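To the wet lab folks,

You asked to see what we're planning to order before we commit. Fair enough. Below is the target structure as C-alpha cells, and below that is the sequence we designed to fit it. If anything looks off to you, flag it before the synthesis order goes out.
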C-alpha cells in the first residue's frame, strides 16, 4: 500500500520561509511525476509545483521565484522550499505522486495534507 506523509507545515510570518517534506512508502511500478498542490478554504485544489521523473519542473505563476520543488534520486522524498511567504499562500498543502502500478494502470496518490498559515 502506497502512503504519502507530509511534514513541515506551520505558522510563519509574511516574508518567512518553510520547507515541506513528503515521504513516499510502498511500491509504485513507475513514477511519472510528483508534485505539491494546495487548497485554501472556499477554493479548489490547485497545483503549486510539479517535478517529473526526468527532473523537469513546473510552477504556478503565483509562486515562481519564491518556491522550489525538489526530490531525492530514489523519488522517495519530495520537498518544497517556500521563501518570501505571503498571506495568500495560506492553505493546506498536499503531496501528490502520479505513477503506474503496472504497465497499463496509473494512479494519483495523495498525502493527508499539512497546514501552512502565513500571518500578515
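Sequence we intend to order:
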Amino acid at each position: 500500500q502506497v502512503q504519502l506523509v507530509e511534514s513541515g507545515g506551520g505558522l510563519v510570518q509574511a516574508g518567512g520561509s518553510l520547507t515541506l517534506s513528503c515521504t513516499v512508502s510502498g511500491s509504485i511500478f513507475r513514477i511519472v511525476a510528483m508534485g505539491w498542490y494546495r487548497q485554501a478554504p472556499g477554493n479548489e485544489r490547485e497545483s503549486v509545483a510539479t517535478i517529473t521523473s526526468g527532473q523537469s519542473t513546473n510552477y504556478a505563476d503565483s509562486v515562481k521565484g519564491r518556491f522550489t520543488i525538489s526530490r531525492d534520486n530514489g523519488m522517495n522524498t519530495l520537498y518544497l522550499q517556500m521563501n518570501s511567504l505571503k498571506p495568500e499562500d495560506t492553505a493546506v498543502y498536499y503531496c501528490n505522486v502520479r505513477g503506474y502500478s503496472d504497465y497499463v494502470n496509473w494512479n494519483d496518490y495523495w498525502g493527508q495534507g499539512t497546514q501552512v498559515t502565513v500571518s500578515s
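Structural context that might help your review: The chain has a mean pLDDT of 96. The first strand starts at residue 3 and ends at 7.

Thanks,
Computational group
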